[in-house]
Amino acid sequence: MSIATTIKRCVALLSTVALTAAAFAGIATTAQADEMQPSDYKVVSNYSYKAGTSIFTPPFTASGTVDLSGTIEPSQAQQVEGSSDTYAGVVTGTVEAADLFAGAYKMYTESMQKGVWGGAPVENLVMYSKANNKLDFPYFTYTLKFPTGFKINADAITFSENTDTISKISKSDIDTANNSVTFTFYLGNWNDYKGFFALVAKEAGQTGHRITVNVPYTVSSDSASQSLGTVIGSGSCSLYKGGNWYNGAEIISVTASDVSIDVLKVQE
C-alpha cells in the first residue's frame, strides 16, 4: 500500500471519528433541557375562561388566541442554479412546548384545576376533539397557505417533536384549491385535562422540547422586487366534553392568529 493511500485512509478515518463525535455531542445537547430565559418565549397567549354556574350549564368554557408570529422567520429563497427566474426556499416554524402551552397551563391552574361540576372535578374531564362530527382523539391544526404560483414540495416536507405533550404529527395532502398544507398535532395520549397538564408541567420552563415543521417550495418570478409573496399561517384547537351530560359541548376554543410570512429573495 502506498504512503499516499495510507494517508488518505487515515484522513478518512479521522473525519469519520470527528463526525461521529459531533453527532453524539449534538444528541447530548438536544437531549439536555435548559431553563428557558425571558428571551426564549415567543408565543403571546390570551385566554378567557369561566366555570359553569349551575348543573344546567357546561362545567367550564375557555376561549382565546395565540400569536405565533415570533416563532416563524421570513423565508429566504435562493435562485435555483441554472435558472434565471426560479427560486427555492423553506418555510420553517419552531416552538418550544413550554412556550406554546404556557398560556393554557396558566388557565388550567387558575380555573380548570379548581373547578367542580356535578360533584366531580372539572380537570377529570377527558379531552376530545371532533372529526367527521364525532368525538375523537384531541388535536390542534396549523395550516400554511402559499400564494398562487408557489409549488409546495410535498415529498420534502418534514416535521418533528421532542415533547411528551405531542404524541404524533401528521400532514394533509396538498389542498390544491387553496395551495396549502395542514399539520395535525395530537395532544398527549387521550388524557383527561389533569393527565395532559401533568405532561405540560413536567416540561414547563424548559428548552429542548421543540416542535418543528419545514415546508419547502419553489416559485418563478422575473420581477425585480425582493419580495416573492406572502405565506399565511393559521391554526385552531377545539376541545369538547364527552359523557352523558352535555356530550359534544365545546369546552375550549382557541385560534392561532394569522401570521404573514414574507418570502424574500436572497440578496447576493
Q: Mind summarizing the main beta sheet?
A: 12 strands, mixed
Structural class: alpha+beta
Mean pLDDT across residues: 87
Q: What is the number of beta strands? A: 16
Strand content: 35-45%
* Radius of gyration of CA atoms, rounded to a whole number: 23 Å
**pLDDT < 50 runs, ≥5 residues:** 1-31
Query: What gap, in angstroms, lies between the N and C termini?
Result: 47 Å
Label the overall shape: elongated
Q: SSE order, as H and E?
A: HEEEEHHEEEEEEEEEHEEE
Number of helices: 4
Helix content: 10-25%
Task: Give structural notes.
The structure is a single chain. The protein has 268 residues and is α+β, with helices and mostly antiparallel strands. Helix content is 20%, strand content 41%. The chain has 4 helices and 16 strands. The protein has helices at residues 3-31, 97-100, 102-110, 193-203, and strands spanning 44-51, 60-67, 75-79, 86-96, 116-117, 120-121, 129-131, 134-136, 139-145, 150-152, 158-161, 166-171, 180-187, 210-220, 227-240, 250-265. The strands form 3 sheets. Strands 1, 2, 3, 4, 9, 10, 11, 12, 13, 14, 15 and 16 form a 12-stranded mixed β-sheet that branches. A hairpin with an 8-residue loop joins strand 1 and strand 2 (60-67). The termini are far apart.
Summarize the structure.
With 268 residues, the protein is of the alpha+beta class.
Give the arrangement of secondary structure elements:
Blueprint: H1 3-31, E1 44-51, E2 60-67, E3 75-79, E4 86-96, H2 97-100, H3 102-110, E5 116-117, E6 120-121, E7 129-131, E8 134-136, E9 139-145, E10 150-152, E11 158-161, E12 166-171, E13 180-187, H4 193-203, E14 210-220, E15 227-240, E16 250-265
Parallel strand pairs: 2-16, 3-16
Antiparallel strand pairs: 1-2, 3-4, 4-14, 5-6, 7-8, 9-13, 9-15, 10-14, 11-14, 12-13, 15-16
